[in-house]
Design a protein that fits this description.
By secondary structure, the protein is α/β, with parallel strands linked by helices. The protein contains 13 helices and 26 strands. Helix 1 packs antiparallel against helix 2, helix 6 runs parallel beside helix 7 and helix 8 runs parallel beside helix 9.
């Protein structure tokens, strides 16, 4: 564990500036003593700390306040906006998760232009792009030596193309940081399930990407896993994977199934209102993670990952900040039928406030289309998103909000607005290079009626955007109600955001009426449609867009004319990624079928019978 020592003289000077030196009361003298005691000689713990076995809660709080990010984690947090590019064989098949049996000849973008991707994203304010170099289907977007299932076997550029290289060059040209997504799950690799062989195979793929394409800033692994051709579940060698990253790209952060960046726990774009960078959750790649996390009853979706209550029982603490991933469309890969379902500007701003504004980094997916371009619909929405943010955040109404404020608990500071003006967004930031310390704060506005509380919050971290009712004021007062040691508040700002109208896309439902439907069985769900019906496909929409342990994952769709003799309709048999992204999934048949009765025989992710209601099904 490394420790860093502050320049104590500089910190004392900065902190003394925050104390009213003209006052001589005992309270203010005690405050000055408190500031000097805790900030003249602070040691920092970098990324990780272990609590002594007999540590009291106050000792743990003291140590937690001095946990700080690595330089790489700090640089990553400052990016704020990063982009995902889901592109590959699924773009051409219409699937979300391919099965690895796809013909590489299907991959043939007609106008692929990585420069268009990067220009569009840079203009929209993004600082890094992450490419799905290989998704679960195993199709590689670079000419790998490990498998023929790659662009080298496609007709695109006569097999001489390299999507990873073209994007790398575009990032260099336009000054964009570059990251890669490499799926550990590979549904094409024959050695998957033979753990030693596949781990060697995967490390060779990772080595190619980390060696041949310049500096990599983020390596993104998800935890998807399945059985190989031998029927055995692959055991990933995370230790070997991360040793490879540290050796070849020491400045890259390892995300999700890594110990640098943590998944927020959903794919809806919603972060935690109380979000700690200093968290009790042990990264999953550590062998002790199950024991530690079970002890605290925490997971990726737990709301509280860092309060004093959690510290009381914790053995360790990690600087493990959250990344919020979400797609600009319902799906992660491009599907033409979703062109009218691009998220509205209002929806994107809600996501922004609840990700970047909740002390997280937003990873927004913008999938290139079959041409190899970011679609016109997505590009137009990104421009609106950028223009609106510029309009809101270009004009800070506070005059001197960038002076460091070293605040003790219950300290307040008044900020003068440029003039009496309307504000409805307050931005607060901590200098997280010195730890995350604020636990509760209050914001007041000076109005003609006097001081009024306009908003309250818990954690701040790198950035907190607090939306308040529009108020006309000439002064803002911020009080740090609770904090660990001394809070290092680096900036307070105030803005006015013009209201946005909800313009949710109108999705035309092509489903058939359910008026004549009759439920015959709930397990498996069996339905009498009421009459002979021509069916082109069906939709499964989990109730409340919520994934449950009983949500359907694998399925067989069957039809019957008499309710006795059943025929299975050929499908891919899987609602891909539904546990993380429980949106309606539509399955279109290769050929239309005629039936009076339908049955969905489905299994949950754990293999037990799924629970599907008639209300969750539509036929087309």
């Amino acid at each position: 564990m490394r420790k860093l020592l502050l320049n104590s003289c500089l910190v004392v000077v900065l902190c003394m500036l925050s104390v009213e030196m003209s006052a001589t009361s005992r309270k203010e003298k005690e405050k000055l003593s408190y500031l000097q005691l805790y900030q003249t000689k602070e040691d920092y713990f970098v990324k990780h700390l272990c609590f002594p076995a007999n540590a009291t809660l106050e000792q743990k709080v003291d140590m937690a306040a001095r946990l700080v990010p690595t330089p790489e984690q700090l640089n990553w947090q400052r990016l704020e906006l990063t982009a995902f590019l889901h592109f590959g064989i699924n773009t051409f098949t219409g699937n979300e998760w391919g099965d690895g049996k796809e013909d590489p000849a299907l991959f043939n973008p007609s106008e692929l232009d990585a420069g268009q991707w990067v220009r569009t994203l840079k203009d929209a304010g993004f600082k890094m792009v992450i490419l799905t170099a290989k998704h679960h289907d195993g199709f590689c977007l670079w000419p790998t030596k490990t498998t023929p299932h790659s662009v080298a076997s496609s007709p695109w550029k006569q097999g001489k193309g390299d999507v990873v290289k073209e994007l790398r060059q575009a990032c260099d040209k336009y000054g964009m940081k570059f990251g890669i997504y490499l799926s550990p799950w590979d549904r094409n690799a024959a050695c998957y399930g033979d753990s030693p062989k596949y781990n060697d195979f995967f490390v060779r793929q990772l080595t190619e990407l980390l060696t041949n394409y310049g500096e990599i800033h983020e390596v993104w692994f998800d935890g998807a896993n399945g059985e190989g051709p031998n029927g055995k579940k692959q055991v990933y060698d995370w230790d070997a994977y991360y040793k490879t990253i540290r050796r070849l790209q020491p400045k890259a952060v390892a995300a999700i199934m890594g110990d640098d960046v943590r998944w927020v726990g959903n794919e809806k774009g919603i972060g935690r209102e109380t979000e700690w960078g200093a968290t009790v959750r042990t990264p999953s790649i550590y062998s002790r993670s199950t024991e530690n996390n079970n002890l605290l009853n925490v997971s990726s979706t737990t709301a509280d990952l860092g309060s004093r209550k959690m510290l009381a029982k914790a053995r360790e603490l990690f600087w493990y900040p959250s990344e919020v991933d979400v797609s600009i469309r319902p799906g992660w890969f491009y599907h033409k039928e979703q062109d009218a379902q691009v998220k509205t500007l209002q929806h994107l701003m809600e996501i922004y406030y609840q990700s970047v504004g909740y002390n997280s980094v937003l990873l927004l997916n913008i999938p290139p289309d079959k041409r190899g371009l970011i679609s016109e619909a997505d590009a137009a929405r990104l421009k609106e998103f950028a223009d609106y943010r510029k309009q809101v955040f270009a004009s800070d109404k506070i005059k001197d909000g960038m002076n460091l404020w070293c605040a003790a608990p219950q300290d307040s500071r008044i900020y003068q607005l440029e003039q009496e003006t309307s504000v409805n967004v307050i931005m607060l930031q901590e200098d997280i290079a010195k730890g995350q310390r604020v636990e509760k704060f209050t914001v007041e506005a000076l109005t003609p009626e006097g001081w009024q509380i306009v908003g309250q919050g818990t954690t701040i971290g790198y950035k907190r955007l607090l939306r308040i009712p529009t108020v006309k004021a000439n002064k803002i007062r911020v009080t740090i109600d609770e904090c660990r040691l001394i809070a290092n508040v680096s900036r307070i700002a105030a803005y006015y955001a013009a209201p946005l109208q909800d313009e949710s896309p109108q999705v035309v439902q092509e489903s058939m009426s359910k008026d004549a439907w009759r439920l015959l069985s709930s397990s498996p769900v069996t339905i009498d449609l009421g009459e002979q019906t021509v069916i082109a496909g069906f939709t499964y929409a989990p109730a409340g867009a919520e994934a449950k342990p009983t949500t359907a994952f694998r399925y067989k769709f069957q039809i019957s004319n008499d309710g006795k003799i059943w025929t299975e309709v050929p499908t891919n048999g899987e609602f891909s990624n539904i546990m993380n992204n429980p949106i309606p999934q539509t399955v279109l048949f290769g050929n239309k079928v005629s039936a009076r009765f339908i049955r969905l025989d489905a299994k949950a992710l754990n293999g037990s019978p799924a629970q599907v209601s008639m209300e969750e099904l539509l036929v087309r």
